[in-house]
Amino acid sequence: MRQPPGFRRYSGTVFAGWIREGFLPPQALLDHPEEIGRLPGAQHLLDCEGRQIHRLPLPFQDGTRSCFTYYFTNASFGRGFRRSYAFRTLRMSLRLQKHRFPTLNVLAALKRRGELLNWTGLLVAEEVQSVCELPSAGQHVFQIHPSISLSPELAAALGRYLASLHGAGFYHGDLKSRHTLVSDQKQGYSFHLVDLEKSLYLPYLPSSLGLVLASRDLVQLFASLPGADPRESKADLVLESYLESADLTARQKRALKKLTSLYGKHGSFRQGRTLLENLVDLLRRK
Q1: Reading across the β-sheet that carries 132-133, which strands appear in turn?
Q2: What percentage of the chain has pLDDT greater than the value 70?
Q3: Whether the predicted pLDDT of 186 surpasses 80
Q4: Which of the 8 DSSP states describes residue 38?
Q5: pLDDT digits over 221-276, tens only?
Q6: Nearest residue to 216 via CA among 141, 276, 156
Q7: Cα separation of 195 and 184, whole Å?
Q8: Which domains occur in the chain, in start order?
Q9: Which of 12, 245, 253, 273 yields a CA-CA distance of 20 to 30 A from 49?
Q10: How far is residue 121 CA from its own chain's centroid?
Q11: Total-model pTM
């Protein structure tokens, strides 16, 4: 990965990677990430499948800021054959910022020294302020922010936001209600996506493939919203607003609507499977 703007190389005893200029990481955090919870002011938020998330104050040259630290020890099949969560999130957040989409302010992205496949990694990001999560269909294992009701106005704004996101070539890949943060501002709703590990930036993707990736994002989101009936969860309002705002031909809009309706009708979409597996299962059930 090329040197990101505003970052410098870091080479510690255990971890190596990139650190934002002005960030002063404590040595204990970088050399022994499993001891993050022992740092002053640390609050443990999540322990799930190798993912450890803490909230804690960290020093900068201009003072102390509230931050999140993500420490990963996952070594599941396939995970090691792509860049680490930390590096992927840093790269994607910088691309989103370039296109003026709100995103994580990453402070450090690190990998274990001498490990080419990056099975473990450490991400430090500034805490996202003044945002809420969308309501979820299931019980929250982990919730940083309170949830906000999905009103018709919010659903329409979300559809327009996703259309602009996909139109710029960004596809989240793991879009859920708890990965979608929202704030109500004077100029309207502002959205902020988190958990960017599976995100893709494909601005020159053929429109046919783009429709498949877009439909995947939409179906994942709809499946995570409360209510068995899509009309109860406002999914139809999100889709309607999306289709009105998307720069697609009438034929492409019909195709996208059909893809999302087929997923919902047959209930064949499942988390944890690849896009190809879901498509094959969808065609078999059609």
Answers
A1: 132-133, 180-185, 188-193
A2: 81
A3: no
A4: G
A5: 888 887 645 445 678 899 999 999 999 999 999 989 888 877 655 455 555 556 66
A6: 276
A7: 21
A8: 7-126 (3.30.200), 132-285 (1.10.510.10)
A9: 12
A10: 17
A11: 0.86
